[in-house]
Amino acid sequence: MATMHPGDCSSQDSPPPIAGAFYIEFDNNLGPKLCAQHPENTFTPELLGDVGDYVIPKPECCGNLLSFEAGGMTIVGHPMQISGNKYARNNFFFNVGFIFDSSVECMAYNTLVAKLARYFQSMEEESGYLTSETEPHCVDEILRQATTTDPILPPPYSLYYHLVHGSPSDGPPTGREDI
């Protein structure tokens, strides 16, 4: 069973290693559907079954950072809802996030998770990138790069990030270089 925390992982001096990254969509027939992850088998079908209501929550929770513990891991995600008549039931739901060992603190990644979710939302709203059945997309590659030291995406699809170290008392990021 999962224990939910409202997007609030504690911080530490250096960011913990990311155990994995995921991209999940809500399928109107199947429910939460794992579409991409890195590395493979980090987000098992059993784990997805246990946390399905958390990774694709009610619409009221979409657009917010959520973190919860399940299966010895902390899962930090940012579920999103995009409305439009081109989607089944006039809505498209997805979540992108990271997985950490539950013994580590992961606040340094909150901004990056939110930024990835907004980036995916922009790609979908601008070109239907996530829901296109004719265009292959590079979500797998984005997740792979996000869990390594590689830069995320080559131009023209650039996404830059900088992890902020420190304690919650340091306050929010103050400038672009902190995001």
What does this structure look like?
Residues 4-8, 153-158 and 162-179 have low confidence and may be disordered. The protein is of the alpha+beta class and 179 residues long. Helix content is 21%, strand content 25%. It has one domain.
- Biggest β-sheet, characterized? 7 strands, antiparallel
Q: What percentage of amino acids are in beta strands?
A: 15-25%
Helix content: 10-25%
Distance between the termini: 33 Å
Record field, number of beta strands: 7
Oligomeric state of shown chains: single chain
Element order: H for helix, E for strand: EEEHEEEEHH
Which class best fits the helix and strand makeup?
Answer: alpha+beta
Shape by Cα distribution: globular
- Counting DSSP H or I runs of 4 or more residues, the number of helices is 3
Please tell me how large the radius of gyration is. 16 Å
- Total domains: 1
Contiguous low-pLDDT stretches (5 residues minimum) are 4-8, 153-158, 162-179
Mean pLDDT: 80
Secondary-structure map:
Blueprint: E1 3-5, E2 20-27, E3 31-38, H1 45-55, E4 66-70, E5 73-77, E6 80-83, E7 91-101, H2 110-127, H3 139-146
Antiparallel strand pairs: 1-4, 2-3, 2-7, 4-5, 5-7, 6-7
Summarize the structure.
The protein has helices spanning 45-55, 110-127, 139-146; strands at residues 3-5, 20-27, 31-38, 66-70, 73-77, 80-83, 91-101.
List keywords for this structure.
179 residues, alpha+beta, disordered C terminus
